[in-house]
Every structure is written in C-alpha cells, then in structure tokens.
Specification:
Subcellular location: Endoplasmic reticulum
Organism: Larimichthys crocea (Large yellow croaker)
Low-confidence stretches: 74-87, 295-388, 867-875
Number of helices: 67
GO molecular function, one term: SNARE binding
Radius of gyration: 63 Å
Structural class: mainly alpha
Number of strands: 0
GO cellular component, one term: Dsl1/NZR complex
Main location: endoplasmic reticulum
Shape: flat
Largest sheet: none
Mean pLDDT: 77
C-alpha cells in the first residue's frame, strides 16, 4: 500500500484528485478483501502520508480534508465523492500531528537554502493543524527563523540550523555580520525566541541577547544605546550582564555620570568576589565626578604638555581598560587635579568648566583650600542660602524635618523637607560635594592622603546654621582645630540661640579636654542639658586660674560668648524700651554699645535713665560722660525751662561729678551746648556761665571776658536790657555798639554805659568800649528814630531834625571830643544825612555844634583838662576839643563847596560822583578814591583836575598822581591780583578808557599827563617776562593805537607778539628788530615745520608781524605767504594727516583780504600757479582765488582754465566757484566751455539772493555774438517751458525783449 501510494505521488505529470480518490477506494477495497489484518485507519494514514509527501500543495490540501486538524473537530463527511456505502474515516488527531510533523521535517531537512520552495510545503503541512500544538509551533518558528537569518545575511543550511545545539551562536553570527544589529534589538530578540535560544528560559534568552547587543553598542561607542540595553538587563536582574555594565560604567567617553554610577552599582552587586576591589575604586572615582556634576561642573579632556597623543591614549583606555587595571583612566581622576581646581572656587568670574580643565597634579587637597568660601551664593549653593534667609537672624532653632516634633517652635527649611510630600532630593551644595569628594580621596588612598577639611566644614556649618543648628554643631565638632570654629561663629547673626550654641560648643570642648570621652561609646556628655553644661563648665573654670595655655584659649572664648550673651540680653531689655536699639549690633559693636548707653541718658524718663546708669556701670562707660551727655540734653533738647534744668541737675547731682574735669567740661559746653542757646535767652546764658564759673574753668577760657565777668554782666543787663542779644554783644569779632544800639533808651543808657568798659573792642588790642561811645550810638538813634520819653515822634523835616539836635545836644557833655565828632559826622555826613537833611540844615547843625563844643572846651579847661581823657575807655586817638572844632570847621567849609558850579554840574549829570564828593568831607583819602574812580571810569582829565581844585583842605593831590595810582591798580589787576580783579574785572577796558582820556587831554594841549608818563608807568609791566604775554601785548596795542610809540617800544611790542605765538621757542629782541631778521627767522621755522600745527603757527606769526615792505620780497615768489603755501603743498600732500588742503589755502588767503597783509595780484598768481601745478584736485581753489582777485590778467587765466575743462571736471565744480565766476562777470567768456550750462542754471536759480541781472547778462551775450544762448537764457528766466526752447524762438524773443 505504501509503495502504491508513493508511486502514484511520484508520477509526472501529477495525477488529478480523481485518480487519488480512486486510489483511496482501491486501498480500502484491498483492505476489506485482501489485507484484512490491517485496520481501515492504517489505510487512511498511508494514503494521507503519501499525499503530504507528494510535493504538491493541492495534495496537501486534500490530505487536510482526510485528517482531524484539531482536538475539537467533529467527524463530518469528507466529500460527496467519498460518500458511498458508508462515511469515510478521518485520520485521528494525534496521528495527524505526527504525519504533518514528519512531512514538514522531511521538506525542511531536504531544503538546500533558507529560501528553498520546500519551506513553503513544510509550512503548508504544518498549517493544516489549526490548533497549532507546541511541536507544530516549534517547527513553524524554526521556519520563520530562517527568514530572519536570511535578513541578517547569514549563510547556513536549514538542516544545520536544526542540528545547531547552541542556537545563541546564530544570534552572535547575526550581530557579527551586521554593524548596526544593536539598533535592532526587537528583531534579534524575536529571532532568539524563534530559535528557542536558552530553551524555554525567556529571561536567560533576553539577557544573553541584550548582553551581546550592549557589548556591540559599546564597541561602536554608541553609549546611549548600550545604556538602554544595560537598563533592560539591570531591570531584569540578569546577573551575567555585570561585565558589560562594568565596561560601560568605567568608560570615560560616556558623559552621563549618574548612569555610569548606576551601572557600576549593578556590577558591584553581581560581580564575582575577585572583581569587587577594582570596581569599588572605579565607583569611588565616578562618585567624585558625579559630585562635581551636582554643582554643574563639567569634565573635559586634558591637554597635557605631551600633546594630543596622551588624550588619545586615555580615550582608548577609557573604553578598553586592561585586565590588570579595571578602573582605567577614571581611576586617576583624584590624582589629576591641580591647585587650579580649588583656586577657581574663589574666582566667581571663572566658568564652571574651569574646575577640572587642568587636572594634572595629585596634590589636590594640599593646596589652595582657602579659596572655597566665595563660591557660595552661586548655583547650587545659592539655593540653600536663599532658603535659609527666612531664619537668617537665627531667632528660631533650625532643625531637620525629622526632628521638628521634639523641638519647641522650630524652623524647618521647606527645601529640605522630604517627609511631608515626595519631591526630588535637595541638591547638594558645593561644600558638601567637596567634603564627600575629599573623604573619597582619603578612602582611595587608604588614609595616606589626608583631606584638609577645615574650610569645607566651616562652610558647611555656616550654611547649615539657619537650617539645622545641630548639624552645624556637628560639623564644627568635626574640626581638627577647635578654635577654627570662631570663624564660623563670628559670621553668624548674633541672637540668643547663636550665642548659646557658641558657648555650648566651647563647653563641650573644655569638658572633653578635662574628661576625655571614648569615641566608641555614646557618652552622656552629649545627652546633658546644654544650659546646665554651660553653667557647670563656666563655674568650674572660674574657680581656678592656672590652666594650660591650650585650654585657657578655649576658656577665654567661652567667657567671651557668655559676655556677649549677657550683652544680648541687656540689649533685648533696651529693645523693649522702644528706642530703636539694634540688639545684635549692641552685643557685638563696642562703639555702638557706648553710643547707645549715652543716647539712653538723653531722656526725662527716670526709669530709662536708671537703666542707662546701670548699663554704663556694667560696661565701664565713664560716669562723667553719662552726666555730661544728660546735661547737654537738658540744655539742648529737653524743652525744660532754665529753672527746671537747674532743679533736675541739682537733684541728680550732675555737677559734683562734672566739675572734677573743668577743662573737658569747658570744652564740651562751648562746643555742643553754647551754640544751641539763644543769644537773647539771658537766663539760660546766666546759668550756663554760672556753671562754668563754679567748675573753675577760667584757666582754660581763651576769650577776653571770663565766666565770672559774664555772670556779673548778665545779672545787671538782664534788668535793664531786655531783648539784648548777649552772645553777639560778647562776640569779639563783632562790634558791641552795633548790638547795643537797638536796646538803648534814655532810661537804660546810663546803666549800660557804666558796664561798657567790660566789653572788648574788636581788634582793639585789649581796648574796651567807653561810656562815651555808648552815649554816642544812643544819640545817633535818638536823632534819627526818636525816643519814647525824649522825642516821641521820629523827625520828618529840617525843622524836626534841628529840634532833635537840640534834644541831643543836652547830652553832648557826656561825650569825649572824638565820640562827639563821630556823632556829628553821622548826622551831617552820612548817606542818611545827605538824603534827609538839606545842606542848610546840615550847616546849621554844624554851626550849633561848633558853638557847643567851644563852650564844653572852655569848661574843660577851667576844670584843668583838655577834655580828651575824662572818661574811662578813651579812644587811642585822644582828640582834643580844639581838634574837634577844627574838624567841624573843615566840614563847614566842605559844605560850602557843594554850591560850586562844578559840583552842581556833577549833581545834574553824574549824581554818583556828586554823592561821593558830598560824603567825602574833602578828606584826602576819600577825595583821592573818588578821583581814582573817575580816572578808571575814563572821565576827562580836566574834570578830575576840577574836582581836586574844588575840594578844600591840604589835599596834596594832582591829576598826575591820581592817574598814576589808577594805572597802578589796573596793572595789579592785569597781573592777576585777586583783590584788584574784584574791583576791575575787565582791566583792559579800564586801561583803554584811561589811555583814551589821556590822549584826548594831550590833543587839547594839556600836558598834565603825557604819553611818556603812561609809557613810564606801564613799561615795567610790559617788560616783566614772568607775566603772561597776551595781556602785555594788549597793553602795548592800546598804547600803539593812541600814541606814536618810540622805536624801542615798537620793537618791544613786536617781540611780545612773536613770543606770544612761539611759546616753545626762546626769542630775543635782536631776532625780530628788522625785516631781514624776521624773514630769516621765518625761513628757519618753515624749514623745521613738519605737521599742520607748525604751519598754522607760522600763519599766526606772519599776521603778528608787520607786512614785508621790500619790493623784491613783497611782490615776488619770495613773499612769505607764497613760500608758506609752497611748503604747505609739499609737506601736507599724501601725509597721514587728514586735511582739506584746498580749503585751508583758500581760507588763509582770504583771511588777509581786509588786513594790512593783503596779498598783491602777483603773489596770488604765484599761489594759484602752485595750486594748479600741484594736483588736479586743487584746480577749484585756484580758480576761486583768481576769480575773486579782480585782476584782469588773473581773470583771463581763469577763463583759459575753464575753457580747457572736460565735462567730467565741470560737473564737479561747486556752487561757490560758480557764484564767484558770475560775480566776476565771466559768463560771456565761458559760453563755449562745458561749464556754461551749469553757470547759466546757477544764475537762474540764485539770481534774487545774489542780485544777478539776467537780462543784462543776456544783453552782454547778444553783444558778444551769442544770440541763441542769450535767447535761451531769457526764455528760461521768463519761465517758458523747456519744449519751446528752439533756435527760432530764442532769436524771436531777442527782438521782442531786448
């Protein structure tokens, strides 16, 4: 049966389904009739097997109809064609599976390639079983795997695939043949699943494949992809992956330090024991890098002195560490960091990259740790600082959130609270990073490299203080040197907590010194109540004094912080007073403490005052200063009356202490108290001077009036002179009489005059005020303003003033002659007298006064004296009555001159002079001053002479002496005297007015003052080489413009002018005395000139000199201006100096037009020739100079140049040149040139402003035979449209308009 079926299956061409059906029926018949020993099911199996192995898809489908394809399938008829006598049987399910698997494997094993057609037959066979049991699925997966292997270009026989015991090697082959296989992890994992790598252990299968992929990605330096695979491996907990994780974790080329740290942590967990040591070292180094990255520092490759090769070597080692050193170059990180690493910590301006850019030295921790601090406040460090600012005053105890329940009113930094809600772990600040890194370094070297942690611990403690005080204390207790903690404590804001913590720290240290604690046990010392510990230690150390030096330093610190705590407590008491005391500053600043205590004494509150006294005693503030401050307060700001001040001072016994130091008392009172006392508060002043007198301050008083004299004066003046400003009265720089006058009356003048001899006269050399002088100022007041008892109404007219005088004269006998004269002058020759009294009234007063003084003089003689020294305090002048009468007679004679015609004319025209003369009393000094004023005002000489002739008395003045004095004052002002400059701010104008007046006087034939006199007076000034040159030149020019100077003065003027220009060169008068020498000096300077400033100086020099007069120089090329132009063109062309050369030459020539230096036409021709020959760009300035010269020859040369111009040159001509050509009347001559269109257009555009006559110009053009041009000009002038400008229309308008 088998052979029969197989034979049918091998027929070619294949038989049809009918033949197969017939064969099956034949087989069944044979079984029934011949092979009864066989079961019908066997026949079916043989038949189906043959169909499956017939290599025909149709037969395979037919076989499927004859099999049970699933366990749950029902027995249904196969096909109508098979229905006969009975239903045909189907192959049982289990047999069907075996048949399908056998056929599929036969097809699979016979395939020669992965894509052989037999694979399709095998798959078709297997797919007949619809519920796909495990064995069938394995075969299907194996067939699918062949397609994946083909995708990865793996060349292998299918049978080899089936027979390969290590299916993982196929995955390795795929990865080896495909460089980017690691990016196809899903595909490869699926392939591994199809191949049943690691059998049914899916975890092992995934781990093996991902390990291979991670290794390939690492080899390709795709660290990110490798890490992704490693992450999956770590997540799956696949232990054998520790090796690839270790390789990636140690690879320095991979910059994700946290990822590398995670990888190394996994490696350490799963590696064999022999590898732990190396991985620990690598992990330590990596943790260091992670710590740096925590504060945003970046690692960069190092460029060493050996060059880039070292870098490449490092890179190679990074990814392929040797077996002997699994750490690779990362293991050397701690040994490749220089002092720059730490130095950058202070330099806030450096970038974060700089930290590790020069890692080349193993002495990381041994240098420059003191550079840590300034980094704080930036980046990560700043966050903790900002978070702590809320508790920056340390008023509350900061603590970790974990302990907040066990502390009263704690401060919890929200940024550190990780318990209330989940958030990221707070970022470490730099000091924490540095400490951890340093300890890692210690660990790495097994303690051989000690980390100097002081600076870091201090910084950490400083940062932790507001956030967690116990943490801060822990950091400080870890310090190698105990006293270093002071640097941290001193930075903290002083509060009760911070000061107690400092005391607690030193108490712990002292106790542990005295009773060492075992570090391996929890000592009860650290569990004791801090306050009790501080009290116990303080008491113990105070009981003895002979402590070791090291311990004594700690004891001193403990005492200091206990003192500060006491201060702070006191300061809080002060703060409770509401006086604005800064508690923290009070406890730390001794100066502020003293000022605060003294400030508290400035109060009337007895409670506060007592607190201030107790504080002063506590802090050793001198009691004298406390009392002095309080007394000063009573005088200045208390608002108490003098009587109340006296009462309070006595009740507090201030004075008993203050008088112990009279010098300091006097100094303080005069400096701070006296300036605040009102001058009119006589009661307060009396108490002030009473205190000075009682304190015995007299030896230290520098003023003339001593305290006892003040007391006596005030007691008497207080009764008679209410409202008197006593401070002004006794001010030795002020006139006491002026202070007295407002309060003097007929009732008190006698009393006050008796006290006057105690008042010093300003600048009197010890002289005092006389009673006579007091009466004199009172009489002045009486005369002008009246008196409540004697003259109730102030005088209004001459009659009133004469009556007032009659009242005053009754008291004239109380005045000595000099005071009498002073009084009489004040009522006859003062501005008030000149304004309010007529000359007749003043004359009458003088007559009556003369008579009165004569009578008083006779009485005096009868008593046997001259009347000059009767009263104490007499004037040093010692005037007699006879001298006084003579003085009045002089006054009378002067009044008589006021009616002189000259004085009357002054009154009409120059009232100022008239008033000055009126008040002068013909006194020599005043008349002289008036005459000098008139001279400096430029008044004519004859008026000054007339003034001197009118004045009476032996004046001994002349016009010449007056003018000489006036010139002397002006010269003083010119010389820079500040006092004289105030009177004559414009001295040259004053001098010019005086010289003009003298000139006019000389012209009129008067020889009282001549030019020689003026020259003689001014010559010393002009010849003084120490004075500035400019004013001396101005003076000589003023003289030159008014008088004919002598040759010597002319030469002097020339020398001064030369010196004024040549400031840097010493010039003698011989160098400039004639024209030849001046020309020689000019040529010498010109030869030395190199830059533009030198040529400018030469231009100024030529202008300062007279023009060259010799014809061979002035009219030739040797003219200095021509020579200067030539040199200027030679030196300045092409020089580095940016210079508008053409404009400078034109400006230079034009500046001479209206001066005596104006150049003749011949010289202008030479200059323009130089310009034209120099360079083409200088043609325009040459044309401008020729056009405005007015010289016929030069104008003709101008036309020649214009007619030879090209169109391009013409277009560059500026408006100034066009205007000059039109002004010179050169329009007709330019008709044939390329410039004519521009000229005519310019004329039409600017005819009104420049005044050009267009019709006249057209007539000239017509006369010259240029009819069309003339007509066109007229058409344009009349506004005709351009389209009508034709030859015929131009000729037509000529006949009509001209």
């Amino acid at each position: 049966m088998v052979k029969l079926c197989r034979h049918t299956g091998r027929k070619n061409p294949p038989v049809s389904e009918t033949v197969w059906r017939g064969l099956l029926q034949d087989l069944l018949d044979m079984q029934q009739n011949v092979y009864t020993c066989l079961k019908p099911e066997i026949c079916h199996q043989v038949f189906v097997e043959s169909l499956l192995c017939s290599s025909s898809v149709e037969n395979v489908r037919l076989a499927g109809q004859l099999m049970h394809c699933s366990k749950v399938s029902q027995d249904v008829p196969v096909s109508l064609s098979f229905r006969g006598k009975s239903y045909a049987l189907k192959v049982a399910y289990d047999n069907s599976v075996e048949l399908v698997l056998a056929a599929a494997r036969e097809y699979f094993n016979s395939s020669t390639t992965l894509t052989d057609p037999c694979m399709g037959l095998a798959r078709a066979c297997l797919q007949l079983i619809t519920d796909c049991p495990l064995a069938v699925q394995d075969e299907l997966d194996l067939i699918s795997a062949l397609g994946q292997l083909e995708h990865f270009s793996v060349s292998i026989l299918p049978l080899q695939v089936r027979l390969r015991s290590n299916r993982l090697s196929l995955i390795e082959k795929c990865i080896a043949d495909c460089p980017t296989a690691y990016k196809q992890s899903t595909t490869l994992l699926h392939l591994a699943s199809l191949l049943r790598v690691a059998g049914d252990d899916k975890a092992a299968r995934k781990g093996q494949v991902l390990t291979l992929l991670a290794e390939q990605a690492l080899r390709c330096r795709d660290f990110k992809a490798s890490y992704i695979h490693c992450q999956d491996l770590m997540a799956a907990g696949y232990s054998p992956a520790w090796d690839v994780c270790s390789q990636l974790g140690q690879c320095e080329g991979y910059g994700d330090l946290e990822a590398r740290q995670e990888l190394l942590a996994f490696s350490l967990t799963h590696c064999p024991p022999d590898n732990i040591h190396g991985l620990l070292a690598a992990s330590s180094d990596l943790q260091t890098q992670v710590l740096y990255q925590a504060v945003n520092y970046q690692m960069e490759p190092v460029i060493t002195e050996s060059g880039r090769e070292a870098d490449e070597t490092d890179s190679a080692k990074a990814c392929a560490p040797s077996a002997g050193s699994p750490v690779g170059t990362a293991g050397d990180l701690l040994h490749r960091t220089t002092a720059k690493t730490m130095k950058v910590l202070t330099t806030t301006g450096l970038t974060t990259k700089a930290v590790l850019t020069a890692v080349s030295d193993h002495r990381w921790w041994k240098e420059s740790l003191n550079y840590l601090r300034p980094l704080q406040g930036h980046d990560a460090g700043a966050s903790s600082q900002e978070g702590a600012c809320e508790n920056s005053n340390l008023e509350r105890q900061g603590c970790s959130p974990f302990y907040q329940e066990v502390i009263d009113d704690p401060y919890v930094d929200l940024s550190q609270d990780v318990y209330s809600s989940y958030k990221d772990v707070p970022q470490e600040n730099f000091a924490e990073v540095l400490l951890r890194t340093g300890k890692l370094a210690e660990t790495k070297t097994e303690g051989q490299t000690l980390f100097p942690a002081t600076e870091v611990l201090l910084q950490l403690a400083n940062d932790a203080f507001p956030r967690d005080m116990m943490l801060a204390l822990s950091y400080l207790l870890a310090l190698p040197q105990v006293l270093d903690a002071n640097r941290c404590f001193e930075k903290q804001c002083h509060s009760a907590l911070s000061l107690q913590l400092a005391a607690y720290y030193y108490s712990l240290q002292i106790y542990s010194h005295l009773t060492p604690c075992f570090k391996n046990k929890n000592h009860t010392l650290y569990q004791a109540d801090p306050k009790e510990l501080i009290r116990l230690v303080t008491h113990h150390v105070s009981a003895y004094s002979d402590w070791p030096e090291e311990l004594q330093k700690l004891i001193n610190q403990l005492r200091m912080y206990n003192e500060r705590l006491t201060d702070f407590t006191q300061a809080q008491v002060l703060q409770g007073l509401g006086r604005g005391v800064d508690v923290q500053r009070f406890s730390s600043d001794s100066d502020y403490k003293k000022e605060t205590i003294l400030g508290l004494t400035e109060t009337l509150d007895d409670g506060v005052y007592k607190i201030a006294l107790s504080l002063a005693k506590r802090y050793s503030v001198p009691l004298w200063e406390v009392y002095m401050t309080h007394l000063e307060f009573l005088f200045t700001d208390s608002g108490l009356s003098t009587k109340d001040i006296e009462t309070r001072s006595g009740s507090l016994s201030l004075f008993d202490t203050l008088k112990c130091d009279p010098q300091a008392f006097y100094s303080h009172m005069t400096k701070y108290v006296l300036p605040t006392v009102e001058g009119t508060d006589q009661s307060r002043l009396l108490y002030y001077y009473t205190l000075l007198d009682a304190a015995g301050c007299e030896p230290y008083v520098t003023t003339t009036i001593k305290p006892d004299s003040h007391v006596r004066l005030l007691k008497k003046l207080r009764a008679v002179a209410n409202g008197l400003n006593y401070r002004k009265l006794t001010d030795e720089s002020l006139d006491p009489l002026a202070t007295l006058q407002p309060v003097l009356t007929s009732q008190n003048v006698l009393s006050i005059s008796k006290l006057a001899n105690r008042l010093p006269v300003p600048g009197g050399g010890g002289a005092t005020v006389s009673p006579s002088a007091v009466h004199a100022v009172w009489l002045q007041k009486l005369f002008w303003k009246g008196d409540p008892h004697l003259l109730k109404r102030p005088p209004q007219n001459d009659q009133d003033y004469l009556h007032a005088y009659d009242t005053c004269v009754k008291y004239l006998d109380r005045l000595i002659p000099v005071d009498a004269v002073r009084f009489l002058d004040s009522i006859t020759f003062s501005p008030d007298a000149a304004e309010h009294l007529s000359i007749q009234a003043r004359s009458e007063v003088l007559k009556r006064a003369t008579k009165s003084l004569r009578q008083l003089g006779e009485k005096s003689k009868k008593r046997g004296g001259d009347g000059s020294g009767e009263q104490e305090g007499t004037d040093p002048a010692g005037m007699t009555f006879d001298e006084a009468i003579a003085h009045l007679q002089q006054s009378q004679a002067h009044l008589d001159t006021l009616s002189h015609a000259f004085i009357l004319s002054l009154k009409d025209s120059q009232q100022h002079y008239s008033q000055l003369y009126d008040l002068s009393r013909s006194e020599r000094s005043k008349v002289h001053e008036l005459a000098v004023t008139m001279a400096t005002d430029g008044q004519p000489m004859e008026r000054i002479g007339e003034l001197l002739r009118v004045a009476v008395g032996p004046l001994d003045l002349s016009v010449k002496t007056v003018l000489c004095d006036a010139v002397e004052r002006v010269v003083s002002a010119l010389s820079g005297d500040p006092d004289t400059l105030t009177d004559y701010p414009q001295p040259l104008g004053v001098l010019e007015a005086m010289v003009t007046a003298v000139h006019n006087n000389v012209q009129s034939g008067d020889s009282a003052v001549t030019s020689d006199d003026l020259l003689a007076w001014l010559h010393p000034f002009c010849g003084d080489a120490s004075l500035p040159v400019r004013p001396r030149i101005d003076v000589l020019q003023i003289l030159e413009s008014n008088f004919s100077l002598q040759d010597s003065d002319v030469r002097l003027l020339l020398l001064y002018r030369t010196q004024a220009v040549l400031k840097d060169r010493e010039v003698q008068i011989e160098d400039v005395e004639n024209e030849e020498k001046r020309y020689a000096l000019f040529l010498e300077l010109l030869e030395a000139a190199q830059k533009w400033e030198d040529f400018q100086q030469l231009m100024l020099l030529l202008q300062a000199w007279p023009p060259m007069m010799k014809e061979e120089v002035a009219q030739s090329e040797r003219n200095p201006w021509v020579v200067l132009t030539s040199a200027l063109l030679t030196h300045c062309q092409g020089s580095e100096v940016t210079l508008d050369l053409d404009q400078q030459v034109v400006t230079m020539v034009r500046s001479l037009y209206n001066t005596k230096h104006k150049l003749p036409a011949q010289c202008i021709r030479h200059i323009t020739t130089l310009l034209l020959q120099s360079q083409p760009s200088l043609q325009q300035p040459a044309l401008k100079l020729m056009a405005e010269s007015g010289d016929e020859q030069l104008l003709q040369l101008t036309l020649d140049q214009i007619n030879s111009m090209t169109a391009e040159t013409s277009s560059s001509c500026d408006a100034e040149l066009l205007s000059l050509l039109l002004d010179a009347g050169l329009l007709v001559g330019c008709v044939s040139s390329t410039l004519y269109p521009l000229l005519s257009s310019h004329m039409l555009s600017h005819q009104q402003e420049r005044g050009w006559d267009v019709e006249k110009a057209a007539a000239e053009l017509l006369a010259a035979g240029h009819g069309p041009e003339a007509g066109s000009l007229l058409l344009a002038h009349r506004g005709t449209h351009q389209a009508q400008f034709t030859f015929n229309s131009a000729l037509a308008v000529l006949r009509k308009w001209l």
